[in-house]
Predict the structure.
Amino acid sequence: MMTSASANGGTVAFPQDHVWAIMRTVYDSLGIPIAAFDPASRTIGNNNLRLKRRLGEVALSKYVNCGSTQGFPSADTYEVFLSIVTSVRPDASGPQATQITTTIDGQARPITFSGEPVRCSSLTTLEARIVEIANKLLK
């Protein structure tokens, strides 16, 4: 089974402690259940998400590309297994900036018939949304 991990994100103009303090709320607002929360490494996420069609209120095909079958995105018709992990680190530009980086790794398999798993790649929409929500919560 092949997967494809990608790390994407952005910088917010707030100190790392402030950003870390709101990350549970960011994940909750996106419908991502938290399975790992490590204050020492400032990482939060879930390595074992098992999803069908949606993540929270959003179609999975808005976040990941798992190919398509019969004209429909596989992310919306297959069972999708995702790992979503976000790290909060100081940005090199100074103490008032923080880098938020999210790594997404995934694969999908057909629900109604047997078939080989397919790899899923991030469309970077979710990573950008995490940064956007963090910015809104901190302002």
